Amino acid sequence: MFAEILVKLWGCWRKRHNVIYKQFFTLKEYVQLRRYRQRSASSQVNLPFSVSDRRAAGSGGSALPCVFKVTVHFINRDGEKITVKASPGDSLLDVVINEDLNFDGFGACEGTLACSTCHLIFDEEVYKKLGPVTDEEMDMLDLAYGLTETSRLGCQICLTKSLEGMVARVPESVADIRQTKDGSA
Amino acid sequence: MRSCRRLLSELKLWTSGRRKWTRGLNEGLGGSGKAFLSTSRCPKVCIIGSGPAGFYTAQHLIKACQDVEVDIYERLPVPFGLVRFGVAPDHPEVKNVINTFTQTAKHSRCSFYGNVNVGKDVTVGELQGAYHAVVLSYGAEGNRRMGVPGEDLPGVYSAKDFVGWYNGLPSCRELKPDLSCETAVILGQGNVALDVARILLSPSDILKKTDIAQPALEALAESRVRKVLIVGRRGPMQVACTIKELREMVNLPGTRPEMVTADFEGVSEALKDVPRPRKRLTDLLLKTALDAPGDKELERRRNAAKVWGFLFYRSPTEILADPGCSRTAGIRLAVNRLEGSGDAARAVLTGEVEDVSCGLVISSIGYKSLPIDPAVPFDSRRAVVPNSVGRVHQAAGLYCSGWLKTGPTGVIATTMNNSFDTARSLLEDMDSGALDVSAAKPGSQAVSSLLEERGVKPVTFSDWEKIDSLETRRGEARGKPREKLLSVEEMLKAART
């Protein structure tokens, strides 16, 4: 009976803290990560969110121990593969900025869903794990060059442990010579 | 030996990150870059126009070439062009690009010279003498005319002027549009038309927290405009706006949509093979026009005092004046039918006409570039500078980027890519020798002395920062992000303090 009460309490605590348990290796690591996050980011993370807010809140992610980090591979416009480690919870735009990856013109609107310059292309399996696309993200994605079925905006993808080893390709940003069909400024 | 160092420095650029890059650029590569690399080559590039095109070209040039120096000339004392004067006040996130531009402008190899009118204070020829290359990115300051009788009546404005008025463009300060009529007609169905409609119908509570110009805010608070019609020549499948702006109109507080159901006949069938962006946009239009709203939405619409709607298949033929011929009283629209389908569909007159009474007509049919110097080739038919990938035809050392290069359509990301292309062409020419950078050129020193002779005092970037902090302080007092200075005299006065 005591065990049942414990299990019920654990279930309530999980729901309250919105734990997706499989993201983390052990409960201890999860608690440590939460404490770290609370220390480094005072604002709640709610999608869509702005990179400048997070920068202001001081979340850098680089102080986390390696075991918490997620490996992400980027393929830049020259076809080179760049591998970085990033913290769960950071968006791909955060990763590009924190790791000083040098993609021309990436993230012009600083993650406020007002442009399509953080457009990234994923493999089919990774794309399925990325979660639902909001209408607002889809609206801006529609304006992106080289849009594919597995395209997303980097500022809206939050890293989780299940995305370990994911590959994100930075598409060509140059349109063909014809005039683009998107609306005027 | 020198080429080895250059190769190494380019490799470093590609593999190092932005932080290292900025540090590297600011201090010189390796910390002592300038000391041991005897820079016998110092290419100087001049950019005319400080909007997104100018700044993105400068950014790319500075990043890709270690010794290039870039000077940006701007006619107004304030930089940033359409990002400041064209982006709607309720779209502040689009203006975040200003942070990147500020970073570029503050770079040691980039200088900003405001209050310099190229074509009047200094000619393009004189700039070409002082710099190795000149990049024209002064955009489109004119607008396409409808070419119908009555176009010059009071009450008819171009969208460019209207947008400039509410965004504080000094030349549009005296516009004072009459907003006492009930119906406004906007010709054109692009994003600018939707911006104008949204600003006309937005509740004052929303607008007063933006950086809209104060006189415009006051005029809009007293506006009696209750109905806005957005008129286009063709049908729902050819509408030029994008879905984000359309969604904002649909969700605009205090308004309800009203459209002609007959205009949407056959549209849903035609959507089968259309690419996703156009399909989603048309789906939203269909849903707004045809579907019965849910209870909450129905309630909201019933309480809405203002109405907006798209009017399709109509072209303006005449602006009708009131009996005293002193102001606009209506507009005569010819009815069209469509020939062909998709983006290539053409509007063909049917011979029928329709009169709509309105007191305000805003034509949003496109901006237009103007020639600023007879020495620069200009294609008046397309209103662009003739070029191939940014290299101006029959003019060595002249390049163009932005709307002047491709015509006045596209969002900031489009301009960014097109400016990067021009910068790449310039760099290729420098490397191949097509652009001769071996001879030293005087650069800004020569131009500064010319300007001094002519009594023109340029505004530097730190002067702009004084204007910026004054505007921000004034805005804080009113709960706005900034309170823009509305005249060149005020701007210059703030810059000189």
Automatic annotation (TrEMBL), chain A:
* Pfam families for this protein: Fer2 (PF00111)
The primary location reported for this protein is mitochondrion
Name the PROSITE patterns for this protein. Answer: 2FE2S_FER_2, ADX
Alphabetically, the GO molecular function entries are: 2 iron, 2 sulfur cluster binding; electron transfer activity; metal ion binding
What Gene3D superfamilies does the entry give? 3.10.20.30
**Does Transport count among this protein's keywords?**
yes
* Keyword terms, alphabetized: 2Fe-2S, Electron transport, Iron, Iron-sulfur, Metal-binding, Mitochondrion, Transport
The text of the family note is:
Belongs to the adrenodoxin/putidaredoxin family.
Protein's name according to its UniProt entry: 2Fe-2S ferredoxin-type domain-containing protein
